[in-house]
Design goal:
single chain
């Protein structure tokens, strides 16, 4: 009988230990979830802030180019009168379109609530923004090429201008690919939970 009583006490002691271990594991699990969420939020916040910074830089550059267009086309005596206004309007609309798209995307990134949104919501928003960004590039590239051709016509392309446009286009392509890779990296960080 005493043996039986000891076994019951041992079982009760084991049950108590089991409850205590379960409680500790539950606390550890909650702590791990909290720490993982904090790490993810930090990673998301960093990528989000870098995207906002990139978009703001492009918005300032595009705004500056819009302001420069009028004096460049209006005051430049080397521009052919036939192409002066079409080139001015084309270039201004090109930069205005890019400014609008970049502002829209920057505001969409800024509105992402990384602390209260699920990982899936953040990932879906980032994927949608990246799609819009790629569409803007696909549309903007031929438009930019048209703008360069119109500029060459307006400036009555001489050999120095053509050389300058080729060198500038090559440098611009290198910088553009570099910036695109940065955007891609930040969007990838927002899309992938790991």
């Amino acid at each position: 009988m005493q043996q039986y009583q000891e076994n019951i006490e041992n079982i009760e002691g084991l049950k108590e230990m089991w409850k205590e271990i379960n409680m500790r594991l539950g606390n550890l699990e909650e702590e791990n979830k909290r720490l993982a969420r904090r790490v993810m939020n930090s990673k998301y916040k960093s990528a989000k802030n870098r995207l906002i910074s990139k978009y703001c830089g492009f918005i300032v550059l595009e705004g500056f180019m819009i302001l420069v267009m009028f004096p460049f086309f209006y005051l430049n005596p080397e521009i052919n009168e036939t192409y002066r206004w079409p080139a001015f309007i084309y270039w201004t609309l090109f930069f205005l379109g890019e400014l609008i798209v970049d502002t829209y995307l920057m505001l969409k990134v800024r509105s992402m609530d990384i602390y209260n949104s699920s990982i899936q919501e953040i990932s879906e928003t980032a994927a949608a923004n990246w799609r819009i960004h790629k569409i803007a590039i696909i549309i903007g590239l031929p438009v930019a090429i048209g703008a360069v051709i119109l500029l060459a016509l307006a400036m009555e392309a001489n050999q120095y201008l053509i050389f300058g446009m080729i060198v500038g286009g090559f440098i611009g392509l290198i910088i553009g690919v570099y910036q695109l890779m940065k955007f891609m990296k930040y969007y990838h960080l927002l899309q992938s939970p790991d």
